[in-house]
DNA sequence: TGTCAACACGAAAACGTTTTCGTAAACTGT
DNA sequence: ACAGTTTACGAAAACGTTTTCGTGTTGACA
């Protein structure tokens, strides 16, 4: 077991100073060709690599990006990470991941843990609990300390930082318009409670589409599901709520769901009620998950391009980190959604 | 913007030495209550936190775990990460993620990048390309440098390190036995080429189950899919191969697929052939993905407990890192699979 | 031979900690 | 009053780099 070798050890072996070794390895002109080659050969033989930690300490840069997301077992978030990682890696950065599990406390702890020198900047999506409590002090403090943040998907206007979002309103509007164009007369939305920013925005898009088509929204067609029900454990409760939606709206012929699980569950309930998709009922979901593609019938969906979101977020952050001048203009990039038509619509 | 404060700055402000500040903050008895309280108050006010990088350099420990996996947009792998993160976090460790994208070169680069001081140890699952080339020098070198590795799922016996695997053979055998018990007479397997270790093992389980039931394996019932076809882009090619499987085996009444996608695709093909599931054809998959649960009919599957695998891997690694005595006995932990019966079997 | 530049290298500081050791000053006991 | 002990603190090393600056040696040139 040969441990990693250091400059000091090379210096001692070759009977020169540490500075000489360092300079030789960096091809400094100060060093004679003789010693330079000697040092380089020795270093190569012992497979010398500079210690990242020492470099980080010296340069006050870690070349590492911190990601804080609510959960990782989720197609969208893993796509985003994948995008971040790709760009980060290409530009010489590593990626360190913290999970908030939608908890405010864990989000704060994770950020504090990483903010003490471990990383150069954050890319994050806010936990639901944080959104509920509307306590954003940990974000402002981090930014005040000079550590840049890029938020994606679940963002909040109170914080002044780079953001990458999708055009939730427009995406939802396009989806609902599609349903209306396809002849749906009674389009319902299955959404979340309003504190989830994206749920709220998508609901807004739904309303705008109705308005544009001169249709009055009906309260009974708007199902705001309590958030607990998103967890896989409460599927039957979710099914029951959706079942009620059908019961209360006999003429329901179109559903726009703000996420994949709601959409798939709606399909399941419809099937139990012997409704034919897309003949009797058309459904559109939101997200670019794996379920939509493989469901039967496959689900028409508003794709968010998670990978692209991640890539863009990483670019923004790294550009910010490597910018010379200190002026930071906070940019908000909108990644366009795309309606992917499959078999759940006509 | 107030930057992070350091010991040195506190020392200067309070007109004491750095050592005094450090000791005061760590409640050393060497320091009088007077100065101790003064320093602590000051530190608290300025929200002092020790710099992680400096600590890492001093302690030669980063309290960070490196994860290298083939891809992250995958239910199983994200479950594993989730498990690792949970345990790591609880024990005061962070998690840094590198993706190999199944490429040997990227796996090597990622490991080299992290091995130079950034992390204390690795948890990884081997890239397919690495498995093909059977070049494991980067693993042995890392271990020789005194950096522990824990492998999971895709492991290789040539490397001597802790491993966490599932009982692939037994899990497959249980699944196939289930099909046979349920009355299937012609059970096919859809698997990968043999260099993917888990594919090979699961095929072995299939064969053992047949043997135990005194059934001779038929070559035409064993479909070894070329690996390229796992990518989402080649779904139709995959469908065609499976379609051929049906064509060549008219009496096919059971399918065991070594992953979720193969199983779902088989269901899709079966549907097109107007086969009823589970009446005409029973299907069992392998993995604990989200597709199985929400497919229609829902898919009976061999669950691998990805979360548990991650937790166990993290425990093994951290225990190893924090062990006093240097003797490392390489442990291989087997996480039992579980057959989750759903609607694709009788 | 004396002066100066070029050359080749080393010493030391800096990044932010922790910890060992040394030492004044104050206190103890007789 | 004096030796010995405790108290309270500071200096410095160490972790592994990079970089600035200083310096001894060499060679050239007048």
Descriptors for this entry?
homodimer; 346 residues; alpha/beta; Rossmann fold; six-stranded parallel sheet; six-stranded mixed sheet; 14 helices; 12 strands; elongated; DNA-binding
The helix/strand order of chain A is: HHHHEHEHEHHEEHEHEHEHEHEHEE
Strand order of the largest sheet of chain A: 2-1-3-4-5-11
Number of β-strand runs of chain A: 12
Low-confidence stretches of chain A are none
Major pleated sheet of chain A: 6 strands, parallel
Number of helices in the DSSP assignment of chain A: 14
The domain count of chain A comes to 3
Description:
Two copies of one chain form a homodimer. Chain A is α/β, with parallel strands linked by helices and 346 residues long. The first copy, chain A, has helices at 7-14, 18-25, 33-45, 52-59, 75-90, 104-115, 128-133, 137-144, 168-181, 197-212, 235-248, 260-272, 290-294, 306-322, and strands at residues 64-69, 94-99, 121-124, 149-152, 162-166, 187-192, 222-225, 254-257, 282-286, 300-303, 332-335, 338-340. The model of chain A has no long low-confidence stretch (mean pLDDT 94). Chain A is elongated, with a radius of gyration of 26 Å. In chain A, 46% of the residues lie in helices and 16% in strands. Chain A folds into three domains: 7-50, no CATH class; 62-165 and 307-334, Response regulator (Rossmann fold), CATH 3.40.50; 168-304, Response regulator (Rossmann fold). Chain A has a six-stranded parallel β-sheet with strand order 2-1-3-4-5-11, sandwiched between helices. Chain A has a six-stranded mixed β-sheet with strand order 7-6-8-9-10-12, sandwiched between helices. The longest helix of chain A is centred in the last third of the chain and has 17 residues, at 306-322. In chain A, strand 1, helix 5 (75-90) and strand 2 (94-99) form a beta-alpha-beta unit. The interface between A and B is large, with 56 and 56 residues. The structure holds a DNA duplex (30 and 30 nucleotides).
């Amino acid at each position: 077991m040969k441990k990693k070798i250091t400059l000091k050890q090379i210096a001692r072996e070759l009977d020169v100073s540490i500075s000489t070794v360092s300079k030789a390895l960096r091809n400094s002109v100060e060093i004679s060709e003789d010693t330079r080659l000697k040092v380089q050969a020795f270093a190569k033989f012992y497979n010398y690599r500079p210690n990242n930690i020492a470099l980080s300490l010296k340069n006050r840069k870690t070349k590492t990006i911190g990601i804080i997301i609510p959960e990782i077992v989720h197609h969208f978030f893993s796509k985003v990470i994948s995008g971040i990682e790709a760009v980060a890696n290409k530009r010489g950065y590593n990626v360190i991941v913290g999970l908030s599990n939608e908890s405010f406390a864990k989000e704060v702890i994770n950020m504090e843990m990483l903010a003490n020198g471990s990383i150069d900047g954050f890319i994050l999506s806010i936990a639901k609990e944080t959104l509920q409590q509307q306590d954003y002090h940990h974000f402002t403090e981090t930014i005040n300390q000079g550590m840049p943040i890029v938020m994606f998907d679940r963002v909040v206007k109170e914080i002044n930082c780079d953001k990458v979002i999708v055009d939730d309103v427009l995406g939802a509007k396009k989806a609902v318009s599609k349903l209306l164009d396809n002849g749906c007369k009674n389009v319902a939305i299955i959404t979340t409670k309003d504190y989830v920013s994206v749920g709220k925005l998508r609901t807004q898009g739904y309303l705008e589409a109705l308005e544009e088509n001169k249709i009055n929204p009906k309260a009974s067609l708007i199902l705001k599901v309590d958030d607990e029900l998103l967890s896989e454990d409460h599927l039957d409760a979710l099914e029951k709520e959706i079942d009620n939606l059908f019961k209360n709206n006999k003429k329901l012929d179109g559903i726009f769901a703000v996420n994949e699980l709601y959409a798939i569950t709606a399909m399941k309930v419809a099937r139990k009620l012997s409704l034919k998709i897309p003949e009797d009922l058309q459904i559109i979901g939101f997200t670019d998950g794996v379920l939509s593609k493989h469901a039967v019938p496959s689900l028409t969906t508003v794709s968010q391009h998670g990978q692209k979101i991640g890539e863009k977020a990483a670019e923004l952050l790294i550009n910010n980190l490597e910018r010379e001048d200190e002026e930071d203009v906070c940019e908000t990039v909108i990644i366009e959604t795309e309606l992917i038509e499959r078999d759940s619509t006509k």
